[in-house]
Amino acid sequence: MLRHRTSLALAAAATVTLLSAPASAFVPPCTKAARPTTAAAAWPELFGGNAAEQLSPAVEAARGKFWFYFLAGSGAGGIGLAQLPAIFDAAGVARAVVGTGPTKGGAALNAGPLVGIYYDSDISREDVADAISNAPTAEFISSRSTAENYMASKGYIEKRDFIKEMEAKGCNPLASYVVFDAISSGKGGVVSPVVYEERLAAYRDGSAGGEVASSFVGDLNGFLAVQAIAFVGLALSLGVDLFLVGKNGIEGFLS
Asked: What is the pTM of this model?
């Protein structure tokens, strides 16, 4: 009888032990595969391949060129793209005044196709002649300047100050922008007072009978050429860089 009770007690203890054990105790242990922790481990083919991989000289050269063009193009492209807003903003400000303000009408200024492309409008020849005739002196503009920067303090003419004085004289707004652009020749929104006076005198001396001086047309097209070259040059540079990145990427990683 005592032996039977002892057996029952042992069986009960074993049952309690089994019931209290977690379910995971009956599942065989498993190990998780280690995940790559770096980009180089995740995509070794983009970072020189596996250590045991034997690359041909052509593939190694293509991969080296890929990274060179990719990094160089990213830096240069970022700098170039940062200049585009300035180009478009300047054209947008001039285009915004098309059709506003007083105008003398008449025939359009014959200065080539770039004028219509950049300003998105024809420009009255008589409005331009009127703006050239009525443009104030550099000293007058500088004395009334409200700009607070180093260049203005040295007598340089800012575009905003020039446009403000031209509006006060009742000149056509678009013609005023065109005249300043010709004087500046695409060198920014400020002009040396010496350059301003010299070019304005040349425009006046070469104008007669309502005609605009050829020197003015040449300077205006010089300004427009600078804008066009900046835009087209940037687009071509980016296109060439993308082509070289793609070409060497295919040859180095996908061939």
From this structure: 0.65
